[in-house]
Amino acid sequence: MDEVQSIEAAVLSFYRGGSEQQKETHKWLQHVQNSPHAWSFCWELMQLNKPSEIQFFGAITLNSKLRGDWAEVPKEAHHELKQKLLETIVVFGNGPKIVLNRLCISLGLFIVHMLRHPTVIEEVTNMFLHEQLGNLSKVTQIEILMAVLEGIPEEVKNIRTQIPRSVVCEELNRNAEFVMQTVVTYLNEKLSHSAVEQHDMNGLINAAKCTGTWVAHGNVHLNDREAMVQTLLKAVHYCYWKEPKDDGCLMSEENELAETALKSLANIISSYATQNAKYSFTIINYMRMFLDVLVPILDAEYKEGNDNENLALMVYALFISTLECFSSAIFAGIVTDSDEVSKVYTRTVDMLIKCTDKPGTYPVDESCSTYAMEFWYMLQEEVLSMDSGEHKKRCLEAIKPVYAHVVKVLVRKSQLPTESSLHKWNDDDLEAFRCYRQDIGDTLLSCHDVLGDLMLDVLSEALDESIMYLSYDPQSTESWTLLEATIHAFCSIAQKIEYTEHQQIVKLLKVLNEIPYEQYNDKLFGMALETVGAYSEWIGDNPKYLPSAITLLVKGLNSTKASQATLGLKDLTSECQKEVVPYALPLLDACRTALQEGHLKNAEMIRLMYTVGNILSVIAYDNIILYLDAMVSPCFEELQAHVQNNDRTEATKARVILRLEMISKLFSSLNIRKPTEHDGSDKVVLGGQKMATFPGAQVAGGAPQPVPQPVQPILLILEKTMGLLKTLCTIWIHDETVIDTLCKALQQALTNLMDDIKPLLTEMCCLVLSILNTNCVVSAADIAGNFILMFYKDQDSRQLMVQLFTAIMDYNFNQMQLNIGKLSRIADLIETFYAFNTRISKKIPICYSEVQVDCMKLVDYATKCIMLPEMGPMKKSVAFITMFVKESTNHPVMMNVILAQGENIVRSTFLCIGGTALRTQVEIFADIFLALNFRYPTQFIQWMKLLEIQNFPTAYVSASDKEQFMRKVIKERVNKRLVQDYVRKFAALCRNIVEYETK
Fold first, then answer.
1. Domain end residue (candidates: 151, 175, 199)
2. How many folded domains does the chain comprise?
3. SS3 133
4. Where does the Importin N-terminal domain lie (predicted)?
5. Band of residue 19 on the pLDDT scale cut at 50, 70, 90
6. What's the confidence (pLDDT) of residue 994?
C-alpha cells in the first residue's frame, strides 16, 4: 500500500472509527500533514472520484501548509502552485461545498503570501470577473471570487509569512479601495434588478461579508463609506420587502444576506469608534438612514413569536453598536437647536422603548427586549457624567419622563410565567429569564439614578395598579404576577434608598404584611421575604417598622420559602442588631422551633445559625447561656453520637459536615465584644481589651476600675467540646472535607475571640498540629498561620508557634518533594503555602532566622512554582519571592539565601516572561525585578547578564533588544508601571508577537 492509500485509509478510519481509534489516527494524520510530502499528496487526495472525507482532508492539508509552511515552497514553484490551485477550484467549482470553501481560503492564503507583487489581487479579481476559469458559470466564478476576497484580511491574522507584517498591512490598505469598489459595484448591479436570481444569493452573501472584513483597511474616512452603507441597507430592504411571505418568514438565503449586511454595517461603524468627535455629522446622517430603512422592519415584526426574530435582533444590535461607538453625537440631541439631531435622538429613544416593551414574554415569545437594557444605562451615564450646570439640568429633566415610562415597562416585562404557561418553558428558558430579571433589576438602578425619589412615586403607582388588578378577579390564581414584579422592582432598588422615612416604603411594608399569600403562588411570598431582607438597612434607620418585618420573616420560616426567610433574617439581624433586642427572645424561640421541626434544608439551617449568633450577641448573658444549651447542644449531641458509634458512612459524613457548618456559622456571628458605633453603653477599650465600667468603681486618682466582662460564649462552647472535636478529628483525619469544615469552624472562633482564645490556645494548637502532620488541608494552614501571626511574639506561646511553623514547612516540603515535576497536582496546597509565607515574610520575618527551617529550599521551590500554569500558585509564589527579597536585607539568613538564589530567581523569571507564563499575566514578574534591583542593585546587574546567553530566553529576541531591555529595567528601581510596560513588550518580542501601540 503506497503512502496516499495509507492516508486515505486513515482518513476513512478517523471519520468512521471509534473514539479511541480516532485519537491515535488524528495524531498520525497531524504528523503526516506537517511533513514536506504533504505539498504533493494533498492534490492526489483532491480528485473527484475520491470520497468527500478524503477530498476534504486534502483541502485542509493544503490550508495547513499554506498557513504555516510557506517557506518550504521554492520561489520558482509559486506560479505552478497558483495554477494548480485555480485548476482544482475549477474541478470543485460545483461542489462539494465543504471542499470548495477550503480551496477559496487556500487561494486567499496564497494571495497574502504574494502581496509583494502589487497587482496580485487585481490580477486574480479580473481573472474571475472576466470569466477566465474554464467552464464554470459566471455566477459561480463571482461567488468564488467574493469568498476569496472576503477571507484575505482574516487570514492575515493567523498566517506565518516571509513578508513583514507592516508591508502586509500596507498592501491591504493599498488594495482595499479596489476590492471595496468591486464588491459594491457587484452588489448594486444585482440589487438594482426588480428580482435577484436565486443562484446569485451566495455571491451576494459573500460580497456582503467582504465589506465587513475589508472595512478596517484603506485609510478611508467614515463619511466616504456612505455609498457602501446605502448598498448594504438596500440589501436588507430588498430581502425583507421583496415579496409577500405567506407565513411571514424570510427564506434562509434572504435571511442570511440581510443578517450578513447588518453585521457588516456594524463592522463599518465600530471600525471608526475611536474617532468619535470627528464624525458627529456623518453618524447622525447614518443613523437617520438606519432609522428610515430598518424601523419599518421592526414595526412589522412588533409581535409575539414572529418568525424573523433573529433579524430583528440583528437590527437592534446594529443600533446599540452605533450608540456604543458614537453615543455623544446622538445624545447631543437630548437638548439641541438642531432639528435633525433632535429627531434622530427622539426616534432612537422611541424605537428602543418599543424594543424594551416588545410584545410577549422573554425568552419564549420574544428575545429582543434584553438588547435595549444597555441603552438605558448608556443614556443615564452620558447625562450624569456631564459637568454640573444648566445644560446637565435641562438634559436630566428631558430624560426623566422617558425613564418613568421605562420603569413601568420593565415592571410589566419582569412578570414571572404563570403555572398555566410553564409548559412552554424549558430549563434553558427559565435560566435565561432569571438572568433577564437580573438585568431588569440592574436597569432599574440606572432609572433610579435619573429619577431619584420620583422613582418611588412611579413604583408606588405601579403597586396601586397591581393591587387593583389583583382585586378585579379575587378568585384568579394567576393574577399575582404583576404584584410580584412590582415588589421585585422595589427590591431591586433597595440599595439606593436612603434612611429617610419614605411613605412609599412604609406603604410597601404595610402591603407586604396584608397580602393573603396562601391564596397565591408561593413565589409571591418568596419575593416579599426577599424584599424585606433587602430593606434591612432602611429598617435599621426606621426601627418602628421592625416588628412587622420580623413577623413576616418568621412566618416565612415555616413555609416553602424558608430560604428567602433565613436570608432576610440574616440581613435584618446584621443591620438592626441593636434594634432587635426587644424582640430577641421570641425571635430566638421561633428560630429554635424551625430548627427542631426538621423541615429546613441544610443551607437554611446553616444560615439560620448566623441569625442566632447575631441575636445572642446582644441579649443578657444569662439568656445567652440558656439559649446556647437549647440551640447548640443538639449539634454536639449528634456529633457525640456519631463519635460513639464510630460511624463513617457517607450519610453520617453528610450529617457531621452539616453540624460543623452550623457551628461554624454560629461562631462567625456570636461575639459579645463586637466593636460597634456608640451604643449608649459605658464600654471603653483599655489595652486592646473591652472592659465594662460601672458608677462608683474607682481607683486612686479617680480613674474608673475596670471590671472584666464575662467569658465569651464561644470560648465556653469550645472548653466543653474540645475533647469531642479532637476525637472527631481523629476519626475523620483522612477525609479532607470533614477536616476542612472543622478547621473553618475553629478559624471562625479565632476570628471572633482573638486574644480571648488564649485559655484554649495549647489545646487548639495541638489539634491543628495533629492535622498538619497528617492531612494539611488549606484551612488548617490558614488557621495555623493566624495563630503564628497572633502569638509568635508572645513568649508563653513561642514554643507552640515554632512547632506549628515547623509542621507547616515540613509537610509542604514533603508534598512538593513527592510531586516534583508534577507540582500542578498540589496547586491549591502550594497557593496556600506561599500565601502563608508571604504573610510571615511581611509581618514576622524573624521567624526564618529563629526557627530551624530550610530557607534555601523554600525559595528554590518558589522559583519552580512561578513557572506553573495555574494562576493561583504562580501569583502567590511571585508575591512571596518579592516580599522575601524586600525583607531579606534586615536578616542575614534571608540575605544569604537571596545572594545564593538570585541568579536562579532571575533565570526562572525570564523563562516565565519568555513563554512559560500566559502573556496576559507577565506584568506580575516586574515585582521581582523591582525588589531585586532595589535591595541588591549590584548583584542584580550581574544576574541580568543571563540575557547574554544566546537564544535565552527564546531565539526570537535579538541581542540588541535584550541589551535595551536590561538597560531600561536596571535603570528603574521604583516605577512599577514602567517596568511592567518593559516586561510586557519584552514578552511579546520573546514570543515573536508584534505588539501594536494603542492610539
1. 175
2. 2
3. coil
4. 25-91
5. low
6. 54
